[in-house]
């Protein structure tokens, strides 16, 4: 796939955050967004959390529909709204992703604020029920043609959305904390290993590289996380080898320390 940058830029400017030019996405962000959407279309990631600007879920639907209409996508992706957050979802890949998670023990990183340091834990029955319910939700909505599908609070009201979002975005492990006790965490000034996966797309006469995944885990858990990261990387490499749109897949990591971490 070799596409002019103007197509991605003009489409984003037309449909996302209409109005003042000052509110338009920068050109580089337009290209990054297009790459992310194409990656969801190809099944390289189950979903994209849209947080580029204040564009509405309806505007995002118009943008994605336009990309599909001009042949830049092969799948009619769904727009899902959860507690005010908007996701672009490959429904078919999401179902297989969730079904695969059901077949093995789900792990999470427990960051409850009373812990001296984070620890890895197997998700309990509440998170297993959450996984079952969200899978049923996507199966029920498989053929729904609404512009935006809203996940009702009656379903997600008792869920830890931080954990849910990590699952939906395809991370190898999600953060968890007991939200019934506190919304705080123990990650302040804790060294975190930020892992990123990058892909490149030929756009016009230039190759544009974009971050496909970005997730972190506490450095103190590096040894315990190693196997999970290796498995996740291997699965991503396998999916990448089955497509011919992106030209390169690479990985990077860095350690950061932050005075405050909001999940």
From TrEMBL:
Q: Which InterPro entries match?
A: DUF4504 (IPR027850)
Q: Which family does it belong to?
A: Belongs to the UPF0739 family.
The name of this protein is: Uncharacterized protein
Source organism lineage? Eukaryota, Metazoa, Chordata, Craniata, Vertebrata
Query: Which gene underlies this protein?
Result: c3h1orf74
């Amino acid at each position: 796939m070799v596409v002019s940058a103007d197509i991605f830029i003009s489409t984003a400017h037309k449909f996302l955050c209409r109005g003042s030019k000052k509110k338009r996405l920068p050109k580089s962000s337009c290209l990054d967004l297009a790459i992310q959407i194409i990656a969801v279309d190809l099944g390289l990631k189950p979903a994209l959390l849209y947080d580029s600007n204040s564009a509405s879920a309806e505007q995002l639907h118009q943008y994605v529909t336009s990309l599909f209409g001009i042949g830049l996508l092969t799948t009619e992706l769904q727009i899902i709204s959860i507690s005010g957050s908007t996701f672009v979802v490959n429904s078919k890949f999401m179902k297989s992703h969730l079904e695969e998670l059901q077949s093995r023990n789900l792990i999470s990183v427990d960051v409850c604020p009373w812990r001296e340091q984070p620890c890895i834990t197997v998700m309990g029955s509440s998170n297993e029920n959450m996984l079952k319910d969200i899978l049923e939700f996507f199966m029920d909505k498989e053929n729904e043609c609404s512009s935006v599908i809203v996940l009702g609070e009656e379903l997600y009201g008792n869920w830890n959305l931080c954990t849910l979002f990590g699952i939906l975005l395809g991370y190898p492990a999600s953060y968890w904390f007991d939200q019934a006790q506190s919304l705080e965490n123990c990650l302040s000034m804790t060294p975190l290993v930020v892992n990123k996966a990058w892909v490149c797309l030929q756009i016009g006469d230039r190759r544009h590289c974009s971050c496909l995944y970005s997730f972190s885990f506490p450095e103190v858990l590096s040894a315990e996380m190693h196997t999970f990261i290796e498995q996740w990387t291997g699965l991503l490499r396998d999916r990448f080898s089955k497509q011919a749109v992106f030209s390169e897949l690479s990985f990077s990591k860095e350690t950061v320390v932050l005075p405050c971490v909001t999940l």
